[in-house]
Every structure is written in structure tokens, then in C-alpha cells.
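Onboarding guide, step 5: your first structure request.
Type a short instruction followed by the sequence, for example:

Predict the 3D structure of this protein.
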Amino acid sequence: MQIIIEGWRFLPHSYAITNQFQLLEMLKQPQLQIYHQDMPYISKNWQPVTNLFPQNDETALRNIPKPSPQQPADATLRMYAPFNLKSSKTRRTGTFICTEWGIVTKSILQGMGVNSFAEAHVQSDTIIITPSHWSKQGLLRSGAEESRVTVIPLGVNPNIYYPLPIDQKNNLRQKFGVDNCFIFLNVGVMCNSSQGVGRLLKAFATIVEDYPNTRLILKGRDAIFPSQDSITKAGKIALTDAEMERIKSRIIYFGRTLSFMQLAQLYQIADAYVSPYSAEGFNLPVLEAVACGLPIICTKGGPTDDFTHPNFTLAINSKLQTNYTKDGETLWFVLPEQEHLVELMKTVIEKTLFREQARKFGPQWVVQNFTWKQVVEQLLDLLVPSLQLRRPIFEPIIL
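The system replies with C-alpha cells like these:
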């Protein structure tokens, strides 16, 4: 069986990250021949990044052959933007699409070169693959045919993302200079409108009044987004001068691109992961944090509902709201309650037993349900159903 992947590689963007981890799992299927066509990045400022993976994995990714113009294959999978809903020359075509704001926006349609998402979908036989039911609902609002929209979640490699033994965690925290602190972590591009950086800074400014030994680690992605500038602007809007002065020495920022092993270390030294987002398509860092045994504080009502569990998650109360752009578009988002966010951050500091419970059950939950191996099995069942997959055997885990 043969599959052509059209997508991004060697970039710290969620589409490229997803594509590369999926490719590495596909390479483990001996009956499957993979071809990869690199697609142009959407920004000329983006440059390929090396050493995201261990050398053997990066070599394996680079050695995937490029398809010939007339390459026969059973399926095509597209993992890039602008989205392409046109039918391919293969038997099945799948396009990965993620919607954050509850619709396919006009700017996305412009990038696709279409006037109507509904018309573009109905005029092809393409299957849309989306990672959450929140994202699926946004596609349906924009006119996608529901029978050709499939939810397949994102995943985690548990050989990279896992909790360290306590002694190793403490040693690593000493190396980072954060021992004897309680550490909150947030990872992302730091877009304030969707990821809620301003409300996180505001909540942290309240927390440090009662818990002065807390720290907030923010991991941005300066290679693809002005993350640090976004944090600065969000702080100026959300905080008073006194609040800014209170927290500035307690925030640790990482903007450079880290390998996935280095990124995992940030999760491994943290005590809790907090994500008061408004609009996300999946929110992969939350799942990575779960795999590392962190208790999660995240917005209720969004895509994280699909893959979080009360045994390790404190959900921020929220309200589903809409907003209107200058172009007359209706955007959908979940607005988390600020006071409840602060309350939950205090709770996770004080509830040692809950943190210990999260450390136990979170990684088990991920291994049982959300590894890249399981994600790829679902993808291949959809795109090349006649392929006889090599599947591992898992013992059920009851939470």
C-alpha cells in the first residue's frame, strides 16, 4: 500500500509537528510505502529548523522519498495551509483542517482561493480530518459535509513526554534555578486573543500576593510568531504598573526553538500547566503536559474537553460567546471566568494529593488513548482501510 503525504516538515508549527510525528509512526508499518512532498511555508520569514528530533528520527524523516509527478498511490494526506480541498489523483484524499474560532474565516478562504467553503467541499471527494469536536463544529458551521468530516485527535510520544522520578526532577529544577518554587507553565505562540496570555498574567499577579515563591514559565515560538512582543502587549493591556512590577522577576521566558526532548524538560520541571484559552483547535501542549504527569487548569467547553479527565484536570468555568469582526464575520469562542481561574491556581498549589493523583493517572490516560501510534492507526484505517496494521496490545486502564 502506498500513501502520499503533502505537508510541512522541520518547523515548530503545530501542523509540521503533527505531520512529523505521524510520519515517524507510519514508517513503522512494513506494508506501507510513504512518499512525502514538502509544501511551501506560508511565511517567507519561516526557515527550516534542524535537530528537533533525535538524529536517527531526523534522518528517517529526511530519507522519505519524494513522489514522482505520476506516482501511483492509494491515498493522499495533506498537512499544510492554505487548505486544499481539491480531489487528488489517488483513491482517497484527506485534508487536515483545524478551526479555532468556530468557523472557517474569510482570511482562510482567501488563502484557499475560494469564495465558499461549502462549495469547495461539495465539489470534491476530500475527507476533512480535524482534531477535535470543537473544530468539527466550526467546519460544519461553515458548510462542510458532515459525512466527510472525521475527528481524529492529536497525540504524544510517551518516550519523550513522561514524568521524571522525583529525584531527577529536583536535580533538573536545580539546573534551571527554580528549586524551592511552585512552577506554573504555559506553552504556545502566546497569541493573546486566542490563548489568553493577558488573563494568565493577571491571575498570576494575584497569585503571587499570597504565594510569593511561585514562578510562571512561558514558552513561546519566536521562530514563527512574535511571541515575546505579544506577551509584552498583553501585559500592558491587562496589568497595572504595580502588578507588572510584582510579577516581572517571577516570569521565565523561553522564545527560542527547543528540541522536543528539551521542551519535555520544561513540562518535567513544572508543577502545574495552565491554559485559560478562548479559541483553540486542539491545544496540544495540554496533552503533552498530561503525559508528563502535570495537573491541568484549562478552559471548560473547548477542544480540551475531548481529552482531559477530572482525575487530573481543573476546568475553568466559561461561557460560549460570539464576536463580530469588521468584515461581519461571527467568531465563536469560550470565555473563561477570571476569578475561577485564580481560585483553581490556588487550589492546585494547596492540593498536594491532587497533584500526586495527576502524576499517576495522566500519563496512563495518554498511553491508553492518545499516543501518536493510536492516532496513525485511526488515520490509516480511514485512508487505507485495506492495510493490515501492526498493532500493539494494551491492557485497559480504568480511571
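Each response can be followed by summary notes, for example: Residues 302 and 380 are 27 Å apart (CA to CA).
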